[in-house]
Fold this sequence. Notes:
The protein is an alpha+beta fold and 221 residues long. The protein has two domains: 3-107, no CATH class; 121-214, no CATH class. The protein is built from six helices and 13 strands. The chain has helices at residues 14-23, 39-49, 84-95, 121-131, 143-146, 203-214, and strands at residues 3-9, 27-29, 32-36, 60-63, 66-72, 77-82, 105-107, 139-142, 151-157, 166-172, 175-182, 186-189, 198-200. Strands 8-12-11-10-9-13 form a six-stranded antiparallel β-sheet. Strands 2-6-1-7 form a four-stranded antiparallel β-sheet, with helices on one face. It has a three-stranded antiparallel β-sheet with strand order 3-5-4, covered by helices on one side. Strand 9 and strand 10 form a beta hairpin. The longest helix has 12 residues, at 84-95. The two termini are 15 Å apart.
Amino acid sequence: MLHWYALKIFYNKVFNWEGLLEDKGLETYLAVQKVQLKGAAHLAARKRLAGETARKDMRYIEDGPVIYERKPLVTSLLFVKADLEEINEIQALLNEKDAFGRVKGFIYRSADKESYATISAREMEIFKLVVESGAGGLEFFADDDFTRFKKGSKVRVKEGPLKGAEGYIKRIRKDRRLLVCIEGVIAVATSYIPPENLDIIEEELCLQKEISSSEKPGSTT
């Protein structure tokens, strides 16, 4: 069965791993900002991409004469959709030592550390929606950061570029913001959203979704 997993890639190699996994036919997701290159930066990227023997550089997107650089919004965090056999193979590759004797990364584990942490399709869908919405003021938090903020009502955005996003209203540095979480991995906080653009999700429905999600089979090593 296919699930989404989160990988932490060390030493600024996230684009290398993105290319490696896609070459294996796996679907990946990297939260990035696209920045159009101009002037000397554009010429340098054009020269790099024109090399006949150079492997495709995943940092860049060519759109005719325009070149965009993909800049990660979350350092070294890469998502991959894979089955258990594939994810075990990826972990084995991450455990291989580099020239300096260092492992290359890890796959996030469940809270009890007994299995890999699986991410539901719904969690990924909402995370992508927020990241790719074009909304300004997004701020990302690691798991050990966002858990200290007090949880408020669970809501769904009903208007604007974030329409359809679900998360919790939390007070972060004196400002009430929508926090969308991939539990145990990452959270993204939006800027202030007017209350009239939010619907409160009934707690009974939230609980049922959480129970259903927890009953999905996890992965083990």
